[in-house]
Amino acid sequence: MQIRARPSLRYESPASGLGERYGRGLTELHVLEHVDSDIGTIYLCRRRVSEDVGAREVHEIYIDGLLLMSDSKPVSEERLSTAALEQHDGQSLRVLVGGLGLGHTARAALQSTRVASVRVVEKLGAVNEWMKAGKLPLSPVFADDPRLELAEGDVYEDLLGPASETYDLILVDVDHSTRDRLSEASAPFYSAAGQAQAARHLRPGGLLVVWSAEDDDDFLAVLSSVYPHAQREHVQWVDANLSEFPLQNVLFFGHASSASDRARSHPR
Fold this sequence. Notes:
Layout: H1 18-21, E1 30-37, E2 40-51, E3 54-63, E4 66-70, H2 75-86, E5 93-98, H3 104-110, E6 115-122, H4 125-132, H5 139-143, E7 148-152, H6 155-159, E8 167-172, H7 192-199, E9 202-212, H8 217-226, E10 229-237, E11 247-255, H9 259-265
Parallel strand pairs: 5-6, 5-8, 6-7, 8-9
Antiparallel strand pairs: 1-2, 2-3, 3-4, 9-11, 10-11
């Protein structure tokens, strides 16, 4: 979910107040932490929102005034995990999450007793440090779960490289969308060749899921050319703290062949 704001980090726009355009209860942001990176200045912010049941705090991360993520209602971030788990009936699952953010995708995976381990690869070291230092709401949850590993790195670079490790579920939520990228360095990931390499990181019957803020027929076609089965799911929800209109993101799925399918395709 992207909302443009001025670098002052208030809910304002040069054209009109976002407080009027994007819901109720919006207040000035409190900047908790900030750090410069190669994709811009990253801000960790907190604000209070008013709701019918009272006020609560919301944490958000911005890049140069662009809202990257909010935990107001992390519906699509959680759905990234739950949808993948619904489509994989295995046990002792190994999960790779590309992008830590505020941690909701990883937490949703860890809530399943079928998940044996979750490795989160986050390019911005400061975000990992904020989580480890207890500065994010989910910090206590993660500190108490030995199944979680937080690693600093580039998940796109990892998936485009040799498959030294394989996973049952690979969940990617880094770029704004498949077309609107934080850096063009991730562009090869969205190509057929890139997906063919990424698929090598999946165990038999594994599943790749990619989060996107917008739909993309071309990327679905790429997945369909690489995986035995590809699909997408539109995730819709309402959050009056962000928008007066329903919100929507898209999940793209690529299903790897099962062990039996691979055996039939390569008989001895």
